[in-house]
Amino acid sequence: MRVYTRAGERLLKSTLDDAKDWVYSVAFTVESKLLASGASDKKVRVYAFENGALPSLKFTLEHATGCVFSVAFSADLKL
To answer: For 71, which of 21, 24, 38, 53 could close a Cys bridge (C-beta 3.0–4.6 Å)?
Structure first.
């Protein structure tokens, strides 16, 4: 998965290689501090953007029954 700068600039900021297969969905929080990805390896990964640094993996959730086709955050960040 590739992460680019805001406004669609072509400058590559980071490549996240944690998913070993297809990434089907990505979602950012409203303030763009967290990024979630859902992949064919049955995992949801959540990354954090802190102090302008490249994103770091915060945690991984595994979905036992199959691919994760969609991820989303609620507007108020509550479960």
So the answer is: 38
Global pTM?
Answer: 0.77
- pLDDT tens digits along 33-55: 898 999 998 999 999 988 767 78
Return d(Cα 4, Cα 13) in angstroms, integer: 5
* Structure tokens that stand for 17 in this block: 């290689």
- What is the residue-wise DSSP string for 4-21? E-GGG-S-EEEE----SS
Give the burial class of 38: count Cβ atoms within 10 A of its Cβ; 0-12 exposed, 13-18 middle, 19 or more buried. Answer: buried
- Tell me which DSSP letter residue 1 carries: -
What are the beta bridge partners of residue 62?
43
